[in-house]
Each structure stands twice: as C-alpha cells, then as structure tokens.
Amino acid sequence: MSILHKVSLQGMRRSRTRTLVTILGVALSAALFTAVATFGTTLLQYLIDGSAAKNGSWSVEFPAADAEFATARQAEGDAVCVQSLGYAVLDGAQESEQSAQKPYLYFVGFDDTDFAALPVQLIAGRLPENDHEVLIPEHVALKAGVNLPLGTVLDMAVGTRTRDGAVLGQNDIYTDSEVLSDTTQRRYTVVGTYQRPGYEGHDAPGYTAITRAGAGECARYDVYVTLPNPRQAVSYAESSGVSYVLNDDLLRFYGVSDNALFNALLASVGGVLVAIIMTGSVFLIYNAFHISLAERTHEFGLLMSIGATARQLRGAVLFEGLCIGAVGIPLGMLAGVGCVAALLPLLADKFRTMAGGTSVALRLTVSAPALAAAAAVSLVTILLSAYLPARRAARTPVMECLLQTNEIKTDSRSVHISPLARRFWGVEGTLALKNFRRNRRQYRSIVLSLTLSVILFVVGCTFSDTAHRIGSVYTAEASDGDLTFQTDDMREDEFLALYDRMVAADGVNNADWVAQARLAHAEGGGMQPDAYLLFIDDTLYSDFMTSAGRSGDELLGTLYDTEHNLYFVGATTDFTLYDAGGQAMTVPLAMEASYPRDGLAQVDGTSSDLILTITVPRSRQAEFAALDVKTAYGAFLWADDPDAAMRTVQGIIAESGTAAQYTLLNVASMFSTMRSADFVVRVFTFSFAAMMAAISAANVFNTVSTNIRQRRRELAMLRSIGMADREFDRMMRFECLFYGLRTLLFGVPLAAVLSCGIQYAMGSAEQFTDFSIQFPWQSLGISAAGVFALVAVTMLYAVGKLKKENLLDALRDDGV
Fold it and tell me: Which residue of 541, 678, 739, 776 has the smallest Cβ count within 10 Å?
C-alpha cells in the first residue's frame, strides 16, 4: 500500500460521519440498482413461467416432420413428438366470415407425455381415452359458428394437405390451390371441449382436435423441442434445414424476438431506471468526494509541493472510492435483494389476479449476471463520481491549494448584498446570504439535490394518482353482475333455457336477465338520438321508479351524449320511436339521470352522439310489438368466486351445444385486475421515489453538515465576538429558509409542469375528452415540508455538535 493510500485511509477515519454517510449513499444506490435488477429477473421469470403454463415450455416446433426426423430429434434430447393425423374439412366453417381461412379440423394424437408437456385447459367433458374420442377447441363454436356438443359423432375424411406436391402443416396458411390427399375415413366421438391452445397460430388453417395417440408408427409428427439454452433457438432451428415455428410468446422473454418494439420497450425501461438512479447517485457520491477534496485541499497542496504527481493524487482518490464501494456495494446488494424478497408476498396475489388467476407463483429469482451488472454499474457510478473532482483537484495550482482560495470567494463583488436586502433580512440573514455567495458550488449542490427530490416525489405521486384516477373511471360505478353474458343470435326460449342452467350453477348466488332492442332512431325535444328499448324485471323497475318519486306506470327514459352530459332530467318528454321500416309510435318518458339495470353493449356502434335508453318492465313488452326490431338478450350473474363461476358457466355453455355467437365476460376479474395493477404501480412508484429521496437526503445531510463543520472556525469567531446563541440560531434558521426557498423556486415550477404533462399524456392516451388536470397541491405541500424539515434537522445536528466543542479549540484549528 502506497503512502498516498495510507493518507486516504487516515482522511476517511478522521471524517467518520462523512465516510459513513457516503457509504450509506453508495449502499442505497447499490440497493436500488440491485432491486431493479432482481425484480426485473423475478418478473421475467414469472412471465416465462406463465407463458410456459399457457403454451408449453418448448422452444422450437417442427410441424408435419417425417418419422425419421422425429426419432432423430428425440434421440438428441428433450423433444415431444405429437402424432400429426391430418386434416378434415369442417362443414360450415367457410360459411363464417371469421373462419374463411380456417376451414379444417386438424387431428393430433397425444400420449401421456404430450399432455404433460403441452397444456390443455378443459372447459367441459373429459380427456380422450382412446383414438376414437376427441377434444374440440372452444373457438370452433365461437369463430367458425359450428356446434359440436358433447357426444357428437364425427365421420371425417382425414388426409394430408398438399400444394404442388409439397406437404403443408399448421404454419402454412390456407389457399384455394391446396388439396387434401391420401384421405382415410375416421369416426370420432366428441368427449370434451378445451380452451384454444396457445401453440395453435392465429393464422393456422385447422382447429386443433386432440385424440389419443394410436399404437404403431405415424407418417407425420409435430415435433416440439425444448432447448437447454432457449437463446440458441434460431440457430438450432435454421440448422435443421426444415420448416419450423418458434415459441415467440416464450422466447421474447429471453430476448429472442423479432418484435423490435418489445425489445426496445425492455431496453428503454431498464435504461431509464438506471439513468435516474445513476443521476441521483452521482450527485451524492460526487458531492461526498468533492467535499472530501475541499477539506484536503491544503493537504493536496503540500503533497504536490513535495513531488506527488497528478496521477498519484487521482489514484489516491479512486482508491478511496474503491474502499467505500467495497463496503457499500455488498451491503446495498443484500438490502436490495432483501427488499424485493419482502415485497413479493405482498404483491403475489396482485400479480396472480393480473395474470387472470394463473397458478404460477411469483417467486424470488436471483440472477448472478444481473447482480454482477448491478455491482458493475454501482462501481462505475462511484469511480465516475470520484474521478471528476479528483481530476479537478489534481489540476489546481499548488499555491491555490496551499492558500485554499479556489473554493471560497471573498471579493466584494462575489459576496455583495444590497442595502435593501441587508435592511430586510437583518444582520443574521445578511451573514447567511454572504455564506451562500462565498461558496456557491456547495450551495447549488444542496439546492439541486433537494430540487431533484421534490421533482421525483411529485412526479411519482402524480403518476400513481393519475393511474388510480384512470382506473377509477372504469371501476367507479358498481357493475351489474360479476359475470355478464350477451347474445344477439338466440331465440328467447333458447336463451332462457341456458339462463336457467346458469342460475343453477354452483357458486352463482344471484342472477338477472334483460332483453334489449335497437330502434332506427327516436325524435323528441328537438333531438334525434339513437334509441334502445331495455326490458327488465318488473319488481326492479317498480322499486327504482318509487325511489325516484315516479309512478310505476310511467316509462323511464335516459338521454345522454358521448361525453355523459344528461338532458331533460326530471321532466316528462314525448318521444317518437321508429323502427327500420319506418313504423312509429309516440310515448311519454319520465326522464331521469340513471336507470335500474345496465344495458347491453352495442357491437355495431352508434350513428349519433346522443343515446336514448327507454327502460320498460317486461310485463309491458307486448306494447312495443308493432315495432319490427331485433332483440338481444343478456344475463347478469353474481358469485362469491367469479373465476370458479366463470369456468362453470363456460362448461354449461359448451355442453349446451349452442351455435349462437355470444360474449361472456368476467367483469369482476377485470375490475380486480385494474385494482391490482393500481396497487402494484403505487407500491413500486412510492418505493422508487422513497429510495431516490433517501439518496438525496443523504446527499443533503452530508453536504450541509460538512459545510457547517468546515465553517467551524468562522462560526467560533462569530460567537467569540459576542454573537449570542439566540442570534446564532437565527442565522442558521435563515440559512435553512434560503435553502428551502431556492429549492421551491426551481422545484415547484418544474414539478408542476411535469405533473400536468404526465396527466395530459396519460389522459390523452386513454382518449378521455373530459379528463381534468389537477394541480398537485398535496404532493407539493408534502415535499415542501419535507425539504424544510430535512435541512432543519441536518442543521440542528451539525450546530448541536459545534456548540458542544470548546471555543478555543475551534478557533485554533479549522480542520475536521
């Protein structure tokens, strides 16, 4: 160890408070880097596990491969070979506009290994037990409009798709020029329905129908290979020389993705977080070393006068940085991992809800490369922060160092205070102002750190509060039902039969249904809105009209525009209703601001900015029989466990064999997902802002306390010439006030502008036309109070230590 290194260690021991605060700052910085890296890898692993649970953990698929190729891949390693039995034309599929390019059933044979490797989520029925039973995916009914209820017997001509002699697979889109060849007549019985498999491409020409793998060899196989290193998937697939499909949903989380936007999003989020943390950390660590060098300026001048080179001085400062990093970085990394581990149990249920109730666990994943990267970034931050002031100090002329004239400005122009200001602030305030002007560098550093804290806190609060407000727009009104079912294609008797089965389902504790008819338009009150008839339960209607102070014999109307402005509320207005054929009828409507039951979503949109909903008790539905309108039906279901009820209702619909188009939504889950996302955003926003505020607070504490410590002799002189403790404390309070005022002068406008900009951007992204921008009074008030409190506490600490010192000792020596 060189003599300069020993001098650096002695300097760190002499200034224990500053050294400990710097180590604390480095630890906080490393903790943030580590927390970001650790949570990033944990979240990435959660997404990988979720994708594997949904689509399988395979890396590459080789569709319609021959038996020799499949055997070779199985011999190489982890490969699953699914029998590719062939395609059969699905009668009625091409008649559906949504299924014109998907006219086949694609039959595959699964054994027990295949069922374990490729997820199959049953909706109704059971798994096939032999090669004459088959599972049908749910989107055969939803997309193709073909009804294949349980027990249906399928006699299919199963063959191979070919085009110009080439065998086609699921990754080859359908064209009119292809043919089915080598067909074999097969009979299957439908024994179950399952969710659309994630490994079936959206443009695949066949709906994947799963049967049991038959005994013996098969001509073609779909081969799914799981690689030990998924990042090698592309090179492995290309080396095979045959057609392949990548598991993009999984591989994108390994960085193997052709989606430039997704890759850019991952890189930009990580880059922004690292840049913010580095900025705050550099402020703290740079200031710590700058203060250290300012204290040792005289010492550096002596060393240079006896021959120390600029390189040796820089090395001594960098050595000090390495020593601080050797203690602070490991402590910070442990703290960062510990913080993430402590947060995960709090967030696990929220992430499970956001992922749709998946069984995948959010578990702590610590990655050695990620930790190494966090340590490297922390070390670079320290060395950069140490090198900049070290280079400046090494370039300072020897005489300036010996006389210490490079930091403190004492000429009259630099410290001049106007007579008006002196009169206004008094002696104590004038002395406080002169001190700031004598050492502007430290003063600006403190103000900059405090300003950064104010901005980060206000911006964090704004982002969190705005996300909460946006979520509240969607969840503010209590929804009718935890689950909603809607269909435009069923007859009333078919709908009611299905509704009765839904009501009797396990877990459903309440239910209601409505019928809704769309009119051509309505005319009344000088307006021509779109109009809907909504038929609801008589008792519900009567109770609502009574609570509104209306007669149950009146018909209820609600007129509003797309910006939710209401019209004619409290009045009784005549409206003429028209059907598409021009048939009209005029009815008086009791206009109110709300209605007792939600209407159904209109998939065909509206033609007017005005919407009139006419709510009618079901017993009076016959009064509107003269209007030729199409009626849609909807059910609202309430359940203690909406997710379990959703699965049950899906099974009931599948077992009913309906071919009608319908929409089934888990509204409770959607609201719960929004609330969970809001909670997660708040936790991470405030955690990040709190850690950055802690770094800034450490910087302020270090700078202010050391600044006062450096003025030890000067302050002792003021006390020795008669400045009383009361006047001395008043001068310190003025310094605290000036720090706070200057911080708010810069911080409040910047934070307010950023806050309003964030609210405007987020509101515009959601296309809210009436989203109000709220000035962040509360967060600004909290941050302003925090600024003054932090500076005041720091000064009380530093001044308290000064007052305990012997006045003569302070006058004799200004060293630390």
Answer: 678
